[in-house]
Amino acid sequence: MKLGPFRLRTLLLWLLVPVPAVMMGLQRPQTINAGVRIIDIIAAVPEAGGFQPDSIDVRAGETVLLRFYAADVAHGIAIGPGLGVDLGDAAPGTRKDVLLTFEEAGTFTFYCNKWCSTNHWRMRGVIAVTGGSQAPPAPQRDPVIDALLAEGIDIDAMVDAAHGSQPAPAATLATTPPSAARGALLAERLQVPADLREKAWQRTHTPQAGMALLLAANPASQPQELADAIAYLWVAGSEPANLQDAGTLYTKNCAACHGDNGGGDGIGAGTLPQPPPSFQDPAHMAARRGDVLYAKIRRGGMGTGMPNFGTVFTTDETWALVDHLWKLAFDAPVHQ
Fold it and tell me: What predicted TM-score, i.e. pTM, was given to this entire model?
């Protein structure tokens, strides 16, 4: 039977609005045995209301069963920071459950980590935990972001100004993309200043600055050698397990816009007010500072459409993501 325009509009409105409401009516929060409270949460695309409810109050020490229903499309369900809860994808009409006990007061975020609509970034909700033996923790300032502000770095600058970048010295311009694989041996042969092997120094300087420092210690070296050695130094020292976990976080939370391999070609890239950069572009990444990348991940990219991830990732997870970006830029396979 062919539906007329009026009937079609009515059917769409019924699907998008009343169905989640009915589901919530049938699955109201309730208490089951052993003092476990059930809290039902509808996951719908933001245009149809997003998470419903999007704010939950829980008492410290209370055990709750969170039941997430996917009302329309597939949604990925995760909770952070620091809880390690990733329930995977909930197909339309299915449910994902998690049993949690929050021992102390705090604030946590449940969110969708699967591209579900052009407003996917709005798929977030808050769990406010009150009570317990301690007062709710005061909002913590981020020492990395504070240090950048004290330095006068404009974290929200759209381009190189945020990283304090200067033009690369001509003597450090390589002719082919740098390779960490080639640089592994070179880093043992070249005179490498101690700073270049320190993670703390790397995080507050660009690879470009590192190449200038390496050139000063090895004035007779070829630009390609310098670039390859820097590529190796910037990806070396990261724990493989941390990089693997960061790769999973990237795939679930970043790839939709930035692309599976960091090429800026994700499915959501065309919906952003500013195209995402390519992490596979070594020249672009050579002018980036790790601490600024960290700050942008945690605070979001002002004017770019990128949401903040400081409410869902721990600081360690954020640094691991930064290391993953260096790997995307400098750890490409060597083509002979």
Answer: 0.85
